C-alpha cells in the first residue's frame, strides 16, 4: 500500500489520520536569516543538510521589519522550520500561509513546491509527495518593491515628484506576518464554498444557495455527493438541501450548486445591531467544510444605501495596519482593542484599509456588526501600470484571493477596485470598467466602488469624464471644501449615493486639537446638508509609520483619532459624538429630577436604533425602537445637579457619554 504522511509539530507525538480534515498551526519557533546579497538560493539554503543551526531564532507569526535585530530591513530573508511526520494510508497534506509579505518561494526537503506574490492574502500548496519522517520547510521572503509590485513605486509621471514616485505611504512590513497551517484532507474534499443567502423582505423567508468547489487529489476520477446542513446558535435548521452528485477528474476540480428554502420563522436578518449568524456544514463524501454566513440584503436605490430595505447613513474609518512592536502582524489582542474602539465610536461603515484585512477582523465584524468595504492594493497606480497586462493579472490574482476568502462574511458589503489613481484617464476608466466586471464574475452579491481623488474636480464636467460612471456608488477622498465638492459629485451623478471614503486633518502640521475638532464639525455640518451622502470614513483611526515624503520627524503620519499606542485624542471623543446615531438633551431640571430627551438622528448618521439603552447612576433604561427623527423622553434622578449619561448599543458598546447639568 502506498503510504502518505501527515505533518505534526516536531515536539508532538505522531498522530494517525481519521476521516475528514485535520488542521494544526505551524507557528512558534522558526530559524531565520537575512539574505541581503541574495546568496541563499545559489548556495542551496533550502537543502535539508544546509547547516543553519547558527542562524537566529524567531517566533512566527513574525515581522522582521519590527524585530530589533533587523529593524526596517528591506530585501530577501529566509525562514526554516523542522518538523516530524507520521505515515498515513490516505489523504493529502497541505501547507497554508495566511499571509507572507510580499514575494515568497517555498521548498520542502529541497524541493521547490511553489511561489506566491501578494502580501495580504492566503495561499497553499500540496506537499504530500515530498514528505519524509523528518522534514525541513524553507521559505524565502522578499519585501522589496518596484514599479511591478502591488503595492509599489510609480512609473514616471509628470504629476508626481521623483521622491514621491519611488515609495508608497505605508511601511513594507516583511515576513511571515500571519499564521502558517498544516492541513490534511481526504483525496476528495471541498476546497471552498460560497454561500449566498437572499432574504425576501416582504415574505420574510430566504433562499440559501451554496456553490461548492470540489477538488480531487487522487489519481483516478471520483464521484461524490454534496449536501449541507445549517445551524443557528447550535440548533440545526429545518431547511433541506437536495444533495447533488458531482464527477471530478483526477487531480481536477468541479463546482456543484445546492439550494434550499428557509422559512420565515427561522430567518434572523443580520445588521449592525443584530449580527445574527448561521453556520453551514458542507459535506462531500468523507470531508466537511464549515463556514459562517449571515442573511442580509445590502443594495442601492437611487441615492440611498439600503440594509434589509431600510436606508442607512453611517460613519466609518480607515485603519492602517500598524501597531508599535507588531508592525502588520495584527494579533488578536490588538484587533480586539482597536475594533472595540471603532465600534464604540460608531464607525460602522468603513472603507477599512487599502489592502485585504485579516480574517479575524472580519470574523469580529461579523459577530459584532461592522459593515466593511474591502479593497485590494491599487494605490495610485499610474495609467501605464493600469494598462500593463502583467500588472492587471497581478491585481486580479490578489483581488481574487481576497474575494474567494471573504465572500461568506456578511460584514463585507462592497469591494473597492483601488484608491486615488488617475480615474479621468482612459486607462483609469478602463481599469474600473474591467476590474468591476472581473469582481462581479467572482461575486455578484456585493456592490462595487473605488476611492476617487478626481471625481469632485471642477474640470470633470460630465459622468463620462471619469471612472465613477462604472460603480454602484461614488466614493471620494475629500479634505477641503466638502460641501462644494460633494455637491459637484451629486450634479454629475444625481442618482447615485456618495460615500466619503477619506476626510480628516493631521495632528502634526501646526494644528491644535481644537482646530481639528472644528474642522470635523464643519465637515459633518456640510455632509448633513446632503441627503445623498450615505457614509463618511475618517482618515485615519490610528497614526501609522511611513517613509512617504511629508511624514513627521518621529516617523509617523499623525492623522489618527488615537495615537500609535491607541490613546484617545480629543478628536476621538468629538468623532464619537458626531457619529452617534442619537442625541441626548437634558430637559425640565427641577427638584432633583430631570427629563432626558433621546432623539434618533434624521440627517447623518441616520438609521433605526433598536435594543439601545440609557445608563446613568448604575441604572439602565431600555429605549424604544426609534426610527430616524423619533424621540423618547426618560425621567431621571438628578440629586447632585448633574448626571453622566451613557448611550449603550447592543453588545454593550458605549457610543456616547454626556455630562448633563
UniProtKB/TrEMBL annotation:
Residues 25-186 form the Glycosyl hydrolases family 2 sugar binding domain. Belongs to the glycosyl hydrolase 2 family. Residues 194-296 form the Glycoside hydrolase family 2 immunoglobulin-like beta-sandwich domain. Pfam families: Glyco_hydro_2 (PF00703), Glyco_hydro_2_C (PF02836), Glyco_hydro_2_N (PF02837). Transmembrane segments: none annotated. Gene3D superfamilies: Galactose-binding domain-like, Glycosidases, Immunoglobulins. Residues 299-521 form the Glycoside hydrolase family 2 catalytic domain. Keywords: Glycosidase, Hydrolase, Signal. This is Glycoside hydrolase family 2 TIM barrel-domain containing protein. The lineage of its organism: Bacteria, Pseudomonadati, Bacteroidota, Chitinophagia, Chitinophagales. It comes from Danxiaibacter flavus. Residues 1-16 form the signal peptide. GO terms for molecular function: hydrolase activity.
Amino acid at each position: 500500500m502506498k503510504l502518505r504522511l501527515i505533518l505534526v509539530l516536531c515536539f508532538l507525538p505522531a498522530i494517525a489520520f481519521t476521516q475528514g480534515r485535520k488542521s494544526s498551526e505551524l507557528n512558534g519557533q522558526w530559524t531565520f536569516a537575512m539574505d541581503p546579497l541574495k546568496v541563499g538560493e545559489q548556495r542551496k539554503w533550502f537543502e535539508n543538510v544546509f547547516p543553519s543551526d547558527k542562524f537566529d531564532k524567531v517566533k512566527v507569526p513574525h515581522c522582521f521589519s519590527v524585530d530589533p535585530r533587523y529593524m526596517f530591513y528591506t530585501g530577501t530573508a529566509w525562514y526554516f522550520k523542522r518538523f516530524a511526520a507520521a505515515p498515513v494510508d490516505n489523504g493529502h497534506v497541505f501547507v497554508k500561509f495566511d499571509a507572507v509579505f510580499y514575494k515568497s518561494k517555498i521548498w520542502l526537503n529541497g524541493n521547490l513546491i511553489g511561489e506566491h506574490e501578494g502580501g495580504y492574502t492566503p495561499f497553499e500548496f500540496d506537499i504530500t509527495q515530498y514528505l519524509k519522517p523528518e522534514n525541513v520547510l524553507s521559505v524565502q521572503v522578499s519585501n522589496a518593491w518596484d514599479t511591478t509590485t502591488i503595492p509599489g513605486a510609480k512609473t514616471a509621471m509628470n504629476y508626481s515628484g521623483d521622491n514621491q514616485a519611488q515609495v508608497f505611504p505605508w511601511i513594507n512590513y516583511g515576513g511571515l506576518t500571519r499564521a502558517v497551517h498544516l492541513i490534511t484532507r481526504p483525496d476528495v474534499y471541498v476546497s471552498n464554498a460560497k454561500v449566498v443567502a437572499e432574504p425576501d423582505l416582504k415574505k420574510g423567508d430566504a433562499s440559501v444557495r451554496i456553490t461548492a468547489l470540489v477538488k480531487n487529489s487522487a489519481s483516478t476520477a471520483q464521484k461524490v455527493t454534496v449536501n449541507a446542513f445549517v445551524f443557528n446558535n447550535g440548533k440545526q435548521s429545518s431547511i433541506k438541501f437536495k444533495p447533488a452528485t458531482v464527477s471530478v477528474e483526477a487531480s481536477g476540480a468541479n463546482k456543484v450548486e445546492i439550494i434550499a428554502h428557509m422559512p420565515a420563522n427561522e430567518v434572523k436578518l443580520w445588521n449592525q445591531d443584530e449580527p445574527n449568524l448561521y453556520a453551514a456544514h458542507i459535506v462531500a463524501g468523507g470531508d466537511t467544510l464549515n463556514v459562517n454566513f449571515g442573511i442580509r440584503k445590502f443594495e442601492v436605490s437611487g441615492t440611498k444605501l439600503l440594509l434589509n430595505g431600510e436606508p442607512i447613513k453611517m460613519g466609518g474609518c480607515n485603519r492602517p495596519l500598524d501597531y508599535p512592536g507588531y508592525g502588520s502582524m495584527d494579533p488578536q489582542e490588538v484587533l480586539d482593542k482597536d475594533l472595540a474602539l471603532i465600534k464604540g465610536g460608531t464607525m460602522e461603515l468603513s472603507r477599512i484599509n487599502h489592502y485585504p484585512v485579516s480574517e479575524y477582523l472580519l470574523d469580529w465584524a461579523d459577530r459584532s456588526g461592522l459593515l466593511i468595504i474591502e479593497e485590494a492594493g491599487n494605490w495610485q497606480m499610474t495609467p501605464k501600470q493600469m494598462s500593463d497586462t502583467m500588472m492587471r493579472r497581478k491585481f486580479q490574482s490578489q483581488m481574487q484571493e481576497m474575494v474567494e476568502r471573504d465572500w461568506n462574511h456578511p460584514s463585507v458589503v462592497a469591494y473597492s477596485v483601488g484608491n486615488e489613481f488617475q480615474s479621468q484617464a482612459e486607462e483609469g476608466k478602463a481599469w474600473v470598467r474591467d476590474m468591476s466586471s472581473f469582481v462581479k464574475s467572482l461575486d455578484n452579491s456585493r456592490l462595487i466602488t473605488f476611492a476617487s481623488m478626481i471625481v469632485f474636480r471642477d474640470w470633470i464636467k460630465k459622468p463620462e469624464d471619469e471612472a465613477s460612471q462604472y460603480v454602484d456608488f461614488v466614493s471620494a477622498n475629500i479634505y477641503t471644501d466638502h460641501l462644494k465638492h460633494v455637491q459637484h459629485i451629486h450634479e454629475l451623478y444625481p442618482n447615485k449615493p456618495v460615500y466619503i471614503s477619506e476626510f480628516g486633518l493631521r495632528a502634526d502640521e501646526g494644528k491644535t486639537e481644537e482646530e481639528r475638532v472644528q474642522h470635523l464639525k464643519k465637515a459633518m455640518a456640510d455632509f448633513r446638508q446632503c441627503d445623498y451622502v450615505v457614509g463618511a470614513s475618517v482618515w485615519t483611526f490610528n497614526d501609522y509609520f511611513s517613509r512617504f515624503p511629508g511624514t513627521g520627524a518621529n516617523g509617523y503620519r499623525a492623522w489618527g483619532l488615537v495615537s500609535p499606542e491607541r490613546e484617545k485624542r480629543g478628536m476621538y471623543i468629538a468623532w464619537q459624538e458626531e457619529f452617534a446615531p442619537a442625541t441626548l438633551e437634558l430637559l425640565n431640571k427641577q427638584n432633583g429630577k430631570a427629563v432626558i430627551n433621546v432623539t434618533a438622528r434624521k440627517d447623518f448618521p441616520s438609521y433605526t436604533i433598536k435594543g439601545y439603552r440609557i445608563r446613568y447612576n448604575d441604572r439602565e433604561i431600555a429605549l424604544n425602537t426609534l426610527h430616524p427623527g423619533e424621540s423618547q423622553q426618560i425621567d431621571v434622578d438628578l440629586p447632585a445637579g448633574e448626571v453622566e449619561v451613557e448611550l449603550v448599543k447592543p453588545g454593550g458598546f458605549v457610543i456616547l457619554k454626556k455630562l448633563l447639568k
